[in-house]
């Protein structure tokens, strides 16, 4: 197939040709290209890397193209589609009963297994996920919902890792597609002020601990303090994952009344409050190079990362420290990260004989290229591999998990319930560098 405009020959398929035409030969602005993209003149080219926007309604997460398939699977699990009776029942056990009858675990699992008709919106989302999975598996296709950027300059990493030398103004590769906006749109300001954030109640960590105890694949595991809350993004809010992870860290400070907790008045800080604190810290000379690098973040949708988190916590007198992990071999970076996380949680263990070791430690803020997570635990599997346990702000806890808080239960398929919280080689292998804030 030959492009009618430039003669480029495409051997992959029709979609690739349409993408080529929309990207390079569109009349006016193309929906496939981010407005304001700013390739740096003279920059040393890095590896080609395509970025896409998640096609699921309301998500708006921007991620690397190879990660899209896994990301869509997590959306499926978030909606409960993963609780399929054909996917395994190795943990079937007799339900513990109470005055209220069978445990909620079995009732909820059965409800999901029957695939009860959901809303039209859920059906549309499931169809979208299935369609994109099929599209990604087409031979020779590199299709995507929206190709946001095909190159990143050498040393610049999207979303907060591998920052260039201090004092240099960042562009879209570091701050996202809205790197140059002076003010977020009014509709988004209203959404954030009205809805704030979605935060699960304390207790999800305790549910994970019980599931780990019941998992046949877990050799041993560690979890952070049980008061930590999973803070998730609102639909349509975009790339505020850095703020949501900061809020999860704040939930620990509030819940344990740790140093600096009075600044929060028992309430998670809003995105606007976090922005104000970061800007105030810059005014006071704390990591003030951040203002030069970002051009200021107040009232904008610019991405933030570990640097801004450290800046805010230092202003509030809250102790914190960071660790950078970098290696050209992703496998070595992953191994170093796992060692760091396990050593961290080991430091808070009081009874190492327990299979699942609950600690009173705060969670970790983990930044990788393009995204950030809250690490709430570590798991060693019986096959010798390791996984981190995370709260991902892109996804929400299912109502099924929330209903287990404070309950006595035996889960029929604990590994399926744990899967949305586990991140192992499949996720981490795409990254050569990480930043960890503790």
Automatic annotation (TrEMBL):
Residues 77-126, 138-171 are annotated as: Disordered. Residues 141-150 have a biased composition (Low complexity). Residues 79-92 have a biased composition (Acidic residues). It comes from the Eukaryota. Residues 105-124 have a biased composition (Basic and acidic residues). Residues 218-436 form the UFSP1/2/DUB catalytic domain. One of its GO terms (molecular function) is hydrolase activity. The keyword Hydrolase applies. Keywords: Hydrolase. InterPro entries: UFSP1/2_DUB_cat (IPR012462). This is Peptidase family C78-domain-containing protein. It comes from Staphylotrichum tortipilum. The lineage of its organism: Eukaryota, Fungi, Dikarya, Ascomycota, Pezizomycotina.
